[in-house]
Amino acid sequence: VGGMLCYGNGSIESLVPTVSSDRSFFMSLRHPTASAPPGLDSAGYVSLPDTSTDKEGILHVYTITQAKRQLAPELASLQANAQRLDWTAPVQRHWLCRSRTGDTKDGQETIDEDNVTGGSYGSIICDLNFPGFTPFRIVRSKANSSLSAVLFRSSLGIGISVDAVCFALFENGKLLEKRDARDLCFLGENALVLGQDGTIMYLLTKKTNEHGTYFEEGPPFRPLLGFGNRQDYVDCRRILCVTSGKETGLVVVGTKVTDNQVCLVAGNLSEVNADDMSGWTRLIPNLQDNAVMWLKSGEEVLSMTELPRYDEEGRRCIAVATQNRVMLLSSSMIARSEMSIKLSSTSLASIGSHTVAFCSSDFKIRYLCCLDGKFSQGIIATLPNPRYGHAPYHLMAIRPDRLLYFQYHSGLRMVEQGENPNCFLFPNAITRPAMLLEPMVSNALCEADNPTESTILLRAVIERFGRKVGSFPHGDDEGIGINGTGLTPQVLDVLSAYGHRHPANWLLTGSARFDRMANSKVLPPWMPVSDKSAGCLNADAHLHVIANGDQYFSEYVKSPDMNMASTLPRPSDPSAIHCRELAKKAMAKGDVAGALKLLDLTGSQAAESAMLQLILASQVDPFTEDGTPALKALSGFGEEGFGSKTYNSA
């Protein structure tokens, strides 16, 4: 809302007013204003939610608080004070800006040139000079990237509403039209407009004549159907256009007037002809016939976006953010996953068809997916913590190898007499490397309804975002992955939990079917051995992980009979203790050979006794009796001998 600088006791202090984060009204006022951020699809390629080309960048609003230094009008007639200059009252000026992600490569770089040749760069489009109104949201046409609409709310004052009250249509920075309305969405180059009071919805059809471009207003219709009586009336407040192949649908956000409870209603999908828009009324949702989700008491929808589908037959998923949580909704308006979190901005960026990324108020970029339990969420990056504990970070875009976010959305300018008031310093978006293997793998596992497609997608994701042994830079549209960068313990845990042990073993060792003689490089070197164990396919892989970094020990593990003898770890060494625990698990599974290999490195007398009994237990006739129960019983043998007392006395 604002801030103050105070000087006292020899220091300058900053005062930033704060309000309750549970109040959706105040939450909507402090969030930055920008268009939908580009994200990734399920295969890891760039997905553009509201544009047809990446060259159009991301639209956002930058606000300048400006004061001019000029001759005071009341003193202009006095000869003695003719040279006195005073500062005018500060005013806020809102500028519509465009930031690009910097994907375009330039083979030549001119020395001492001001143009940016790498990274993100921005430009100013136009001045949003609408007195009494403040930019609220930005909506763009996917069919025509140069066509956009800026929605405004009333400035602070009596009767301010949390909803938009008007919008302005722009094409290539030129103002086309300004209308009073609550919300709008684009159907091609035509705009579907929700009236200012939420009771009507009409279509603005784009036309051209000798004077230029204009919009023709169509007949009004009710924005929501299916009210049984006046007590069930729902006030329509927001609309979102969703697509499925050639079909289009509407998602409506409304509030029940009797108890102020908010709901989301998803209408039926229908094919709308771009040349003949007369059938758009089939998109109007019905409260009784269509899928409805009621939010908790006091919750308000701050942002919502449709995630890109993996294929034409894939499930549609909608990401919704309120002041208290982020949710992933199915096409039937059922919450498939949710996270209780406070957001620093309303930006929701897709990472596939079932995963969304966002900025939380604790200065982290997080993700939410449709997996179960602890695997449904994670952290992508941690952003710098500002000095005074407040920064409205806004996620601008996600690329396979980096992410862009904007930190500064407003500035202060003191214009001296004779200076151009339209010149100011404009900050660029910040670019940071991103390790996206974890959210991309989680998203690929969400396609489990089709195991074949999930396996193909998982293989493609791991190849593009997984380990890369070479130190040279990664390729275009690929994750970083150098020396195992991006491989986290949760990646190995989630792959093992969902039965994908071979991909986990490949990420760890570079081999999908691991044997003892494998000449692999275990990555990453900084991950603890206990975390790497989740991705090991068998006992041989466990031994390679434990011996990683010791040349002679690694050669001994590959072939104990042929290579030079190596100094084995002492019984009190953590690696020996880890081998003991792994051997117990191998015995419980009936893996005789694996248990013997692991016990061989334990080095205690109890382990040697267990190896002897293990060999005897394995002599049970395999054709007549299963020896697994005996091995399970043996896995608990000599707990006291396996305990720490043996290692302490060794």
Structural account:
Helix content is 19%, strand content 31%. The protein has 650 residues and is an alpha+beta fold. It has a domain at 439-649. Strands 5, 6, 7, 8 and 32 form a five-stranded mixed β-sheet that branches. Strands 17, 18, 19, 20 and 21 form a five-stranded antiparallel β-sheet that branches. Helix 4 (489-497) runs antiparallel to helix 5 (501-509) and helix 7 (539-547) packs antiparallel against helix 8 (551-558). The relative contact order is 0.08.
How is the topology of this model organized?
Elements: E1 4-8, E2 11-15, H1 24-30, E3 39-40, E4 46-47, E5 58-71, E6 85-87, E7 91-100, E8 121-128, E9 133-140, E10 147-154, E11 166-171, E12 174-180, E13 183-187, E14 190-194, E15 201-209, E16 212-217, E17 234-244, E18 247-256, E19 262-266, E20 270-271, E21 291-294, E22 301-306, E23 317-322, E24 325-330, E25 335-340, E26 349-350, E27 355-360, E28 364-369, E29 377-382, E30 394-398, E31 402-406, E32 410-415, E33 430-433, H2 437-445, H3 451-465, H4 489-497, H5 501-509, H6 529-532, H7 539-547, H8 551-558, H9 574-589, H10 592-600, H11 605-617, H12 628-635, H13 639-642, H14 644-649
Parallel strand pairs: 5-32
Antiparallel strand pairs: 1-2, 3-4, 5-6, 5-7, 7-8, 9-10, 10-11, 11-12, 13-14, 14-15, 15-16, 17-18, 18-19, 18-20, 19-21, 22-23, 23-24, 24-25, 26-27, 27-28, 28-29, 30-31, 31-33
